[in-house]
Design brief:
By secondary structure, this protein is an all-beta fold. It is 0% helix and 51% strand. It has no helices and eleven strands. Strands 2, 4, 5, 6, 9, 10 and 11 form a seven-stranded mixed beta sheet that branches. The chain has a four-stranded antiparallel beta sheet with strand order 1-3-8-7, with no helix packed on it. The radius of gyration is 13 Å and the shape is globular. It starts with a strand and ends with a strand.
């Protein structure tokens, strides 16, 4: 089983930045596709960014150009850099790992964008 733990969330002003981290306990990290999803109150969970070990990175249109996903396989960690934050970015952000028939989720970290 893979355990995922997010960190780095918090309160930030509009236009500000945050860097989220997700540490994985997987014995073998590299094969997993890592992603960040978010869920605002009353909304469905949606993909923000996804980065396989190989292949194209993809972003939701709403975050493209502002968010950047990266991963460090040696550290078994995936990051999400959030820039130019808007109030509509407020949500719980979840780390996700997918590989083979497995799908794992972290407990989430709250990001609140407000003045």
């Amino acid at each position: 089983q893979v355990q995922l733990v997010e960190s780095g969330g918090g309160l930030v002003q509009p236009g500000g930045s945050l860097r989220l981290s997700c540490a994985a306990s997987a014995i073998i990290f590299r094969p997993y596709t890592m992603g960040w999803y978010r869920q605002a109150p009353g909304n469905q969970r949606e993909l923000a960014a996804r980065r396989p070990s190989g292949g194209s990175t993809n972003y939701a249109d709403s975050v493209k150009g502002r968010f950047t996903i990266s991963r460090d396989n040696a550290k078994k960690t995936v990051y999400l850099q959030l820039n130019s934050l808007k109030p509509e970015d407020t949500a719980v952000y979840y780390c996700n790992a997918r590989g083979g028939q497995s799908n794992y989720w972290g407990p989430g970290t709250q990001v609140t964008v407000s003045s």
